[in-house]
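REVIEWER CHECKLIST
Item 1: Sequence provided? yes
Item 2: Single chain? yes
Item 3: Sequence as submitted:
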Amino acid sequence: MSSRPHALFVVRRDLFRPSETFIYEQAAAFRKFAPILVGGVVGEPTPGHAFDTTTARGAEKLVHSGQGAAVLVHFGVDADIGIRLAKAIGAPCFVVLHGFDVTRSSWSLVRSGRPNLVRYGFTRDRLWSSGAQFLAVSSFIRDQALALGCPSEIVRVHHVGVRVEGGVPERKRSGELPLGLVHVARLVEKKGTSILLDALGLWKQGGGSFRLTVIGDGPMLGSLKAQALRLGIQEVVTFAGRLENRRTRAAIADADVLVLPSVTARSGDAEGLPTVVLEAASVSTAIVATDNGGTADFVHDGESGLLVKQGDPVGLLSALRRLDQSARFRNELAWRANALAREKFDIYRQTAILEGRLERAIEGYPGMGM
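Item 4: Structure as written out by the authors:
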């Protein structure tokens, strides 16, 4: 048996996308494996993390004799890269299903015109017989994979998790100050930002006092700014654009409530398990979200947040008013969410569980016994 740590090839076609810091947070949490990122570098690494990167072809040369190895692919759309690599080096392959890779219809994938999505739209059903194992980020995503024909024995739920801050700060907002809301999202249909603005427009008409910071960018930015102006809330809504991860976490921690009113897009795209709700819990910020996709794996209504019906601005407003009226209730939700995150969604705990699964897969893989 080699004394080297196991090699883990973490595959993503485009590395270091700003919206995918969860990939690199997880990679940094491995202890028994030495992660090597496989793909093309399109962004800047997260500050504080340093990883070796390579191409799929280069990865084939990095496995040493007698060293255990595994392949971990993020997103089904990139599974073809990881499966080919795993077969080339004789290693087990795990594919993490995050959301759109099993929620978007094949028709919408093909109609996207993007070569990798078009190819995936035509070939997705072949994944289930590729020899790979699948990790769904929520119960909802596992159900979606099953509905697409994935055999139940090769897919299980695994929550990636987040870094959880220690302790639970007491929030003491003066009743004279507006309720501080933060919404962190790519500005696309699925994130429901326009519904949030509609809810706040109603609240403004009723004399509500709030401020909203929207963090993120996307194709709907222009229309959302116009909507805020039309609703007369442009003075209390700040579109901050995309921020680096440290500043985003600080903004979430500073807010009274994180709001994520996601909806199922016309393409079928729905939430897997939104990392941002876990990040809010990790810094003890109360959460209001919708019953979309896998969000309910973490947000339990009245326990770890408030969960409202998707697409309902009136219901969303009711939840926000409820938290505005009771700082004590808001703090209780934040405390329980933080406790749940520490108990079941801590990234180090979750990564240790994943390492055990990878080790067992290596032990049982032909020619790779430890």
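Item 5: Key structural point noted by reviewer: The mean pLDDT is 92.
Item 6: Recommendation: ____
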